[in-house]
Amino acid sequence: MLSPSEKNAQLIKSTAAQLGFDFCGIAKAEFLEEEAPRLEEWLNRNYQGKMAYLANHFDKRLDPTKLVTGAQTVVSLIYNYYPHKKLPENPEDIKLAKYAYGEDYHFVIKEKLKTFLEILREKIGEIEGRAFVDSAPVMERQWAQKAGLGWIGKNSLLLNREMGSFFFLAELIIDLKVEPDSPLAKDYCGTCTACIDACPTDAIVQPGVVDGSRCISYLTIELKDAIPDEFQGKMENWAFGCDICQDVCPWNRFSRPHQEPAFAPPPDLQGFSKKDWVEMTEETFRKVFKKSAVKRTKFAGLKRNLQFIASNKS
After folding, report:
1. Is the pTM of this model over 0.85?
2. Binding residues for [4Fe-4S] cluster
3. 270 shares a domain with 169
4. Which residue ranges make up the annotated binding site for cob(II)alamin?
5. What is the Cα–Cα distance from 286 to 298, expressed in whole angstroms?
6. What are the residues whose beta carbons fall under 8 Å from the beta carbon of 65, sequence distance 6 or more?
7. Among 24, 38, 152, 306, fewest CB within 10 Å belongs to which?
């Protein structure tokens, strides 16, 4: 006979599947003791660049009970975003990260998580909980690994043996006791260094450690100042984000197209040529990226990226 915590785990996993999540893993909410020194060293080396917010809420990042009073469980969820067709067709054209092809994932997944909590409350009763989608001090990759969903690869991303890494991570932190899954103890990267070798800005400084201030995603999205000249000729036409370390990862041969209509690129974007990018007006930007995560750079930020790419002399 199942214990109450095992029944809760069953309910959570069936609800996750019903809502379209590809994988669901469960971990006990506790202080991430092993991560504390790693996070501290990463911050001390200034690998966060100008992302000052990453140094805030140090304790909350490591302890989920500081985010939800009485938290007992962290539910980690995987939601696929691998596209049906890569953009652009010509590799010499301007590129944006695959996660940004369609609607902003924060809103799409947050709605699902709200529904998730409502279902749990209907079936179980009043529970305290919060939903997170890359929007608060939660160490999502570490929790996903602890919940058995994968391992942290040399590019610092969570890798899953069945679907690679082209997916979003989301979490529910709840005060409900749930039977935890076993962490994935093995690292399946082996001796492969494809991601390290392919990174044009040498952002992967050692296996599993990325100097964020050198990452093309940081340079094109998070950095608000001018892109440093040392990256001239190294951007490889990425105007928003970068997928290089994922594209070369052998585990991503298992990626399969997502089933989320909201992640389909709008028709205008599908036919975008290099000329369209270069001549883009603010009106076009607002129209094409109305619901997109690309809005984070604002029009001025995207133009800065495009100008920097155009001035690149490799």
Report:
1. yes
2. 189, 192, 195, 199, 215, 242, 245, 249
3. no
4. 61, 134, 155, 158, 169, 217, 242-243
5. 9
6. 29, 30, 71
7. 38
- Are 71 and 208 members of one domain? no
Q: Which residue has the tokens 């020194």?
A: 37
Query: For residue 299, is it within any domain?
Result: yes
Note whether residue 91 is domain-resident: no
Tell me 22's DSSP state: S
CB 230 within 8 A of CB 249: no
Residues 12 and 161 in one domain: yes
d(C-alpha 264, C-alpha 245), whole Å:
22
Whether the bond between 88 and the residue before it is cis, its omega within 30 degrees of 0, is yes
Domain count, the chain: 2
Q: Quick one: 213 and 279 in the same domain?
A: yes
Q: Pairing mode, if any, of strands 209-210 and 23-28?
A: unpaired
My answer on whether 135 and 248 are in the same domain is no
- Residue 205 is part of which domain span? 194-309
Quick one: 151 and 252 in the same domain? Answer: no
HEC string for 202-232: CCEEECCEECHHHCHHHHHHHCCCCCCHHHC
